[in-house]
Amino acid sequence: MTRPAAVADPGPRTARPFVQGLVDCSPFVLIVVPFSLLFGVVARDAGLDLLQVMSMSVLVIAGASQFTALALLQDNVPVFIVLLAALAVNLRMAMYSAALVPHLGHARLGVRALIAYLMVDQAFAVAAKKYEEEPKMTGGQKVAYYFGCMALICPIWYACTFLGAALGRAIPASLSLDFAVPVCFIALTAPMLRSGPHVISAGVSVVAAIAFAWLPWNFGLIVAALLAIIAGAQAELFFKRRTEART
């Protein structure tokens, strides 16, 4: 009995989404390169050796929390607080994961574990937008697209972190690599502000981060994140109720 073509030849169905994910995420290389170079330089300046720098990058793969941890370590903050602050900064990954469950939750446990390990802002932003625009993508195509998004980001993050750590002192200060940090998050956030709740949540986070900047050990970021989540959720409920009232 001949198997259907869709089952017998699954490769092309997933190869194209993989390549598309790679292409769609490739512009972020322009941000990831200086971002990871900067982390390598800053980490060595903070006193970490090459093995420690690479271990941190490979295990965490989250620039924002890595910079947060470095800043606190340089201020001789207790390790528990450093870990708590880094975890708080990375809480957004839990929200990313929850948002992707309807699209990638069908995958095998090992695949989901690898997706969780590779979860970064760039891959989530690009993949989530793609899944919304093309709801007819199959589960296998969505997984392939996500891995395509990470095909460039992750290796380049490792390689440029190593270069920054190994050759950091040879990089001229005039290059001002620190521009990559705000540019990266602006590029990630701006396209996602597509509704009232998104805008309200972003606005509350900005105001709260400034208002609570005086709190020690970057706790202001934790407070701002929690307030933004609450504001976004309440705004979504408000708009939903208003829409239902009109209908």
From TrEMBL:
Q: Where is this gene product found?
A: Cell membrane
Among the Pfam families in the record, one is AzlC
Superkingdom, taxonomy of origin = Bacteria
Coiled-coil stretches = none
**Record keywords, A-Z:** Cell membrane, Membrane, Transmembrane, Transmembrane helix, Transport
User: How the protein sits in the membrane?
Assistant: Multi-pass membrane protein
Choose any GO biological process term that the UniProt entry carries and state it: L-valine transmembrane transport
> Which named protein is this?
Predicted branched-chain amino acid permease (Azaleucine resistance)
Q: Which organism is it from?
A: Tranquillimonas alkanivorans
